[in-house]
Amino acid sequence: MYPSWIQIENNPWDVAPHNINRMTGQTIEDMTGQAPVEKTLFSPVTRVKKSRKMFMPLSEDALILRRYTENWAAPDDRKVNPWDLNEPDPTDNGTMGTIPGAVIECNEVDQVFVHFRNFDCRSGKTLKQRTHSLHAHGFACAPTSDGAYPLSPVASPVSKDVPGQPVGPEAKVWGLVEVTGFKKGDRVPPGGTFIYNWYTFHWPSTAGVWLYHDHSIFDMENVQQGAIGIIVIHEPKDPEDDTDLDLHLPGGLFNGLPTVTSCLPIPIRVPILPHQLDTLGLHGNVPHPHGGMPMATPAQAPAAAASAGPEPDQADPVAALIVKDGDHLLELSPDFTRVSRFCFTFYRPPPAKARYLQLFHDLGNASMCINGRKYLGNTPTLVAGLNTRMRFGVVGMGRGDGIHTFHLHGHRWIVPGPDGNDSTIIERSAQVKAVSQFEDTRAFGPANSFTFKINQGSFMGSFLKENPDLGPGIGEWHMHCHVLDHMMGGMMGSLLVINGGELVTALPVGEKREDDRIKIGGLDDLTVHIKGIEFFPKTLMVSAGQTVTWNWEGDNHSTTSDTGVWNSGVHNKPFTFTRTFTAADSGKTFPYFCSIHGGPGGAGMSGSIIVM
């Protein structure tokens, strides 16, 4: 039996926590015209309250399926991908949970009990909007544990192994959703709990990567806000299904970092100026040029030194004394008057084995995200070595725009499936047979999931030259959705292949595309497409008497004239707005902007209509 304790909570969420779009070299403020905002996060069990600067927060709180210890005694947050260079700290010191939510992991011989509690405290939402459930893919279950509104029967006793779930002391909150006697798993009210029983029945066919999500009254809206997680079911008989990944965590920690910082004493006296204290003790919240957080937190530091490559000084940095000056990390003296040590950040030796889980999804008003983040430098940058045995698990979710592809540059794979030629053998077979041709791109849609492995040692590693440090696989490889507007809308990450021990410096950044893109409208082509956080085309040239149509292909946007000539108001897709330009407009230029993501004068998301 495998128990898991999960609580759904709401908190602000930043989809661009490192304030960068490496594709264009822009900060988020440069892109959107919106200044960072302070948001307050609250951890309901520990009562920890933290203020965070957010660069691209969702317009509403995210819903986070958060991992807990037994009886929801304390958060037990773990990163989705410990070898992701950009994944923020998921604990009370960071995001207070993850998107996707807590990973549920078991073997195909296990029975899983998920103890679920609803702690959705969003203001401005009705009781039914805050009512939730859990529905799992991949497992077998009774209808009582399917979590699918409105079909779940009451959880009355079935046998001594499956006791009933009376409302008991939660009778008052269950009564608010018109449930009495025994609970219903498809409508767990705020303050209510439910135990879901999910089975594998020793079927190897259940092995793989799946998803679970809210499937209650307002499931579409709540999944859109983040109420989704990933399931990993192992097959111990499959020699390629690594079940010992805990031994290959960065620094031996679920929340470890792929990097480690070491410090070198300075032999001369180096005084500091007052402004250099601005980032004192806050280095974990100061974005690195490539988006990562290069220094271990105090809780992560003790395991750091043993895993580092070059080590100028074995003493760990003292986080409370660290300041960041440009690209330099400086450790100050205890009296804050001088620099005592220079600090350098290195990549750890890469893992021999690693699992990389990715959710490609549409999140809140932010549109296209990978694991709750968007734009290269915020999205996953997964660290591996030339001989890492990599196992990928990819899941999709979304609305009408939820059809994606997964494309990884420089690599190929096959998708594994069961062996055999009759149903009994297939059902009992480990997934060891190729069921696809070699591919480097795979299409998938909402609730689709797939897994595959790449053995770097037999692929990129096989191209090693005499000097392993010069292996052509070393470097960073794009990893993204190949639906072009999804890709350019921020659904792009990377795979970073290293030897280990390299100095961490800024990864490559691109440059902003020219702003003077002008399209001359023809008789049948007078549409401005609104997607991501851009107008396409940015500048449209039309003739007097022609009508321009703005077509919403994303959410939470407007077209607003700088001078107040028109204002569509803020809308979500699908929506269109039109304006006809008359002879009186000839020879004029009409600048406009999105009132959410831009501003007058060409700030952020903006465009213009030129009337000939």
Low-pLDDT sequence parts = 297-313
**CATH homologous superfamily assignment of the domain at 2-240:** Cupredoxins -  blue copper proteins
Number of strands: 34
User: Which CATH class of the domain at 2-240?
Assistant: Mainly Beta
Q: Report how far apart the termini are.
A: 73 Å
CATH fold type of the domain at 2-240: Immunoglobulin-like
Roughly what fraction of the amino acids lie in strands?
25-35%
- How large is the radius of gyration? 26 Å
Mean pLDDT: 87
What is the overall silhouette?
globular
Q: Helical element count?
A: 6
Helix content: under 10%
The CATH architecture of the domain at 2-240 can be given as Sandwich
Query: What's the arrangement of strands in the largest beta sheet?
Result: 17-25-24-19-22
Largest sheet: 5 strands, mixed
Class from secondary-structure proportions: mainly beta
Protein model, in words:
By secondary structure, the chain is mainly beta. Among the domains are: 239 residues, Immunoglobulin-like (Sandwich), CATH 2.60.40.420; 89 residues, no CATH class; 94 residues, Cupredoxins -  blue copper proteins (Immunoglobulin-like), CATH 2.60.40.420. Helices cover 5% and strands 35% of the residues. Strand 12 and strand 13 form a beta hairpin. It is globular. The termini are far apart.
Write the topology of this structure:
Layout: E1 2-11, H1 28-32, E2 37-43, E3 48-54, E4 62-68, E5 101-107, E6 111-119, E7 135-136, H2 171-175, E8 193-199, E9 208-213, H3 219-224, E10 228-234, E11 259-271, H4 304-307, E12 322-325, E13 328-332, E14 338-347, E15 353-363, E16 367-370, E17 381-385, E18 389-396, E19 404-408, E20 416-418, H5 423-428, E21 431-434, E22 441-444, E23 449-455, E24 475-480, H6 484-488, E25 492-498, E26 518-520, E27 527-531, E28 534-536, E29 539-542, E30 547-552, E31 560-561, E32 575-580, E33 589-599, E34 603-611
Parallel strand pairs: 1-6, 5-10, 15-18, 17-25, 26-29, 27-30, 29-34
Antiparallel strand pairs: 1-4, 2-3, 6-8, 7-9, 9-10, 11-14, 12-13, 13-14, 15-16, 18-23, 19-22, 19-24, 20-21, 24-25, 27-28, 30-32, 31-33, 33-34
